[in-house]
Amino acid sequence: MGRKIKYSAIASINPGDITSSHILDAELVNADIAATAAIAGSKLQALSVGVNAGVIPSTGVADAHVAATAAVAGSKLQALSVGANAGVIPSTGVADAHVAATAAVAGSKLQALVVGTNAGVIPSTGVAAAHVSATAAIEDTKLATIATAGKVSGAALTLLANIPSGAGVIPAANLPSGVAYAFGIATRTNADGTGDQVITHSLGVTPKMIKITYMAADGVQSSVNGIGIATGAAADQTIIHYDDNVTANTDNVAIEDTATMIGIRTGNGGATSSGRADLSAVSTTTFTLNWTTAVAAGYSPVRMLWEVMG
User: Which residue of 19, 209, 215, 250 has the lowest C-beta tally within 10 Å?
Assistant: First the structure.
């Protein structure tokens, strides 16, 4: 305990008269210290978290002394150095070197990409055409299939010789005249009677020529072979008709200019028709034979090799 000092009205206090022994313990309060006191940090007790929270220790403030809600201004923080104080954001912002290669920063945190500026930044809205350099040489594995009509000009097509065999069929409409070609086999019997026989050729264009090579036999003495050719439904004709009579050992060749596409005559060029068909319709996918006379009874099926050219 200190001692009380009594002094008269005429007494004076000189420097050194009052010592620590004269000051009572626990008597000084915050208001007794001037705002300009500038007390040295060495005179202050070290700061403990939760204790003497208003006192700054001479060793500085540690992370544990700062409340999670302190909201310390960036201007009060030390500038960030790569690998040091990694949790501190500098007031000047984060530079590229401060971000780890594995940071996986969300796109929403990145500045929008400007052509020629911040070229390494991918915007959260995606890359626009203007962001891609004319010399980017993007691999075709990164591109989607072009399926929209009108997106590729014919003038841009090159190296057609390299089209793979499994790539599909070029539509006949895109081929030069006379290039499109198709062929197939058809038959006709007595049981089929008269009427239309529709043959599908799937050429894709209206044929400019139809050719049918046919043969039949009566099973007794004659065989019939012929070639019918047409350049349109209104101009069909049988150009060669050949009969072979085995019994009589005679042959007969006739060239006709009629509306008949297929003509089968009875034995050795006889006048009686044993089967007749006219070309009645032609389209981009089919042609129609109209059998006005059925194949005669006793004849083998008429076998036809048909060819169409566009």
Answer: 19
